[in-house]
Amino acid sequence: MATIKAIEARSVHQIQSGQVITDLCSVAKELVENSLDAHATTIEVRFKDNGLDLIEVQDNGGGIAPDNYESVALKHYTSKLASYDDLSSLNTFGFRGEALSSLCALSDFQVVTAQAHQVPVATKLEFEVSGKLAKKQVCAGRKGTTASVGGIFKRLPVRRRELEKNIKREYGKVVNLLHAYACISTGVSFSARNTVGKTKNVTVFSTNGNRTTKENIANVYGAKTLSALIPLELELEFEPSHAMKRSGGEDVVNKIQVRGHISRPVFGEGRQTPDRQMFFVNTRPCALPQIAKAFNEVYKSFNVSQSPFIFADFQMDTNAYDVNVSPDKRTILLHDAGALIDSLKVSLAQMFEAADQTVPQSQV
Ligand code: ADP
Ligand code: MG
């Protein structure tokens, strides 16, 4: 029988990193969330060759304190959460302290950072594959942090080849994800640029630090898209399932507010593809496939041949869901999802019923 041995630390780190950073979307997501957690009001995302060569996120947030240079990319080092008990009161995107350490394992990763009092002096940090600080060097820079991810997945050749093969599609997904962050982030000027080959910088989209999500949507998708939307304002109330009832037996009702914007339920206001649908839980962008399905089903009963634009933020008690399901935190476990969805479908149908259903002139 073969002896059972521990896998060497370096290989474990590679394997686990590949679960935190699974694709281009996770790179962009982790970096942008770090910028938002650092209270940035300007976030610039730069791609080279659709992200294959480089994804870089520059922010004007608080920067990294010199005392933290050594630990910033070490695994499970975070400035945001000290113990599991803190999870329920968490108000940051990050808390696992895994993103930067994973990026060190999977790419050429470096950071340039400056706190306000250090400007115009910044520090460039380079790391070993393990996340240990390898080199720090003084350079010129503005307040905030620039994190650069070069040659993503270079040490996972199969995944790198897969990414190269599907880069157009993957890049499209990243841009969609960035749209979601840009639209939900009021008070933040967001921009994304891409350089492919020798072509000039192409601005993919930008927002102007608007006060409302509506203005953000107009910046990202255009005024025409905005004009086809109606406000999404639902108050969902439903009985919690047996398991969720509080001990003591008193009656409790789950209350969830849904806020956002959605296409009017008539032909001509939707789109042929469901590529403009974004969901949030307490402003955290996340994948909610069952909820997306419910929205699309109800919409279909009003407009058979098109998909709606959906921007929906589910505002609920932090005890009503769990973000700590997968390392990338895109998957959210909603307690009582079944009852929530039933209630959502009824409210949506009532809302569409009450909406203006005249077909736009251009479609007559
Ligand atoms: P987490 O976000 O879960 O804490 P990360 O690996 O993403 O873990 O980041 C590690 C730490 O590095 C953060 O807790 C934060 O202190 C610091 N950091 C990362 N990115 C930035 C940034 N853009 N601005 C300021 N600090 C940052
Ligand atoms: Mg993070």
Question: Would you give an account of this structure?
Answer:
This protein is an alpha+beta fold and 364 residues long. The chain folds into two domains: 9-218, Histidine kinase-like ATPase, C-terminal domain (Heat Shock Protein 90, 2-Layer Sandwich), CATH 3.30.565.10; 228-356, Ribosomal Protein S5, domain 2 (2-Layer Sandwich), CATH 3.30.230.10. It has nine helices and 15 strands. It has helices at 9-20, 24-37, 99-106, 157-165, 167-184, 213-221, 223-227, 289-300, 337-354; strands at 42-48, 54-59, 108-114, 121-127, 133-140, 144-150, 189-195, 202-206, 229-238, 254-263, 277-281, 284-285, 310-315, 321-322, 333-334. An eight-stranded mixed sheet has the order 5-4-3-6-2-1-7-8, with helices on one face. A hairpin with a 5-residue loop joins β4 (121-127) and β5 (133-140). α2 (24-37) runs parallel beside α5. Bound molecules: adenosine-5'-diphosphate and magnesium ion. The site of magnesium ion has 5 residues, from α2.
Outline of the structure:
The protein has 364 residues and is of the alpha+beta class.
Number of helices: 9
CATH top level label of the largest domain: Alpha Beta
Number-wise, the strands total 15
Shape call? globular
* Adjacency order of strands in the biggest sheet: 5-4-3-6-2-1-7-8
Structural class: alpha+beta
Protein name: DNA mismatch repair protein PMS1
Organism: Penicillium angulare
Family: Belongs to the DNA mismatch repair MutL/HexB family.
Domain DNA mismatch repair protein S5: 217-353
